[in-house]
Amino acid sequence: MIAMTLLFLTLLLGLALVPLGLPGLWVMLGATLVYWIVVPAGSIGGITFGVLAALVVVAEVLEFTISGRYARKYGGSRRAGWGAIVGGIVGAVIGVPLPIIGSMVGAFAGAFAGALVAELTVARETRGEPIRVATGALIGRVVAAATKVAFGMAMVVWVMGAVLVGRLSGNG
């Protein structure tokens, strides 16, 4: 019961970290691994852990590609798409020292700035309106964060469902 409670609290903590741009999904995956090791007769097994690991990887890939795709969707060049991706990563890293929301704000601002700067460097005849493109990158970053939260919620439901089913059947 204590292990299950700690797992649940850690999953909620991880879920709370996700919208802040912190590695909440990885915290959730780690908590599930620890639970699997500590409660070997429990209902968390290789399939559950494998599915969760796949969800984390897919969510991370989506997080970094959605903002670039939105920059392109809003008329940006390929360079603007890459600028949004790189800017989002750099902004998140630079924002880390700002407590609680720094990496999230940094990622949003970085995606905007990266797309804007990249779009301004493209030859005039292939360039879309830079502010519009950068706004698209920012919207993409918000969509990416929301997508990652949805993945985190799915992980919480999956893990807690597996744990509760295991407890009901006498395995955890």
Automatic annotation (TrEMBL):
Coiled coil: none annotated. The keyword Transmembrane applies. The keyword Thylakoid does not apply. The chain crosses the membrane at residues 33-59, 80-98, 104-122, 142-165. InterPro entries: DUF456. It comes from the Bacteria. Keywords: Membrane, Transmembrane, Transmembrane helix. PANTHER family: DUF456 DOMAIN-CONTAINING PROTEIN (PTHR39165:SF1), IG HYPOTHETICAL 17883 (PTHR39165). This is Hypothetical membrane protein.
